[in-house]
Specification:
mainly beta
Length: about 100
């Protein structure tokens, strides 16, 4: 099945402590059905000192399950479901169900 959410998309968080926030997808983890979203689901981790990094407590994004995020509608930025449409030239594009706008292409 084609990916409904891809790297670089803007998504809205539907549930959890970051509900209502939006951010850009940094990385997709399709094997786990999760995504890394910039500024969302931040956790603090203890870091050992390495040659390139100092020791201390660092904040970084933790993966969030795909069921807890939805694509942001390109028209108004609210959460929308994703559909697919085949164009006249044979290209398969993603479409926002809320507004009908094309997401890519």
């Amino acid at each position: 099945m084609a990916a409904k959410i891809k790297k670089g998309d803007t998504v809205v968080v539907l549930t959890g402590r970051d509900k209502g926030k939006s951010g850009e997808v940094i990385q997709m983890l399709p094997a786990d059905n999760k995504a890394l979203v910039r500024g969302i689901n931040m956790v603090r981790r203890h870091q050992k000192q390495t040659q390139s990094q100092e020791a201390g407590i660092v904040s970084k994004e933790a993966p969030i399950h795909l069921s807890n995020i939805a694509l942001a509608d390109p028209k108004d930025g609210k959460a929308t479901r994703v559909g697919f449409k085949v164009q006249d030239d044979g290209a398969k594009v993603r479409v926002a169900k809320r507004s009908g706008d094309l997401i890519d292409g």
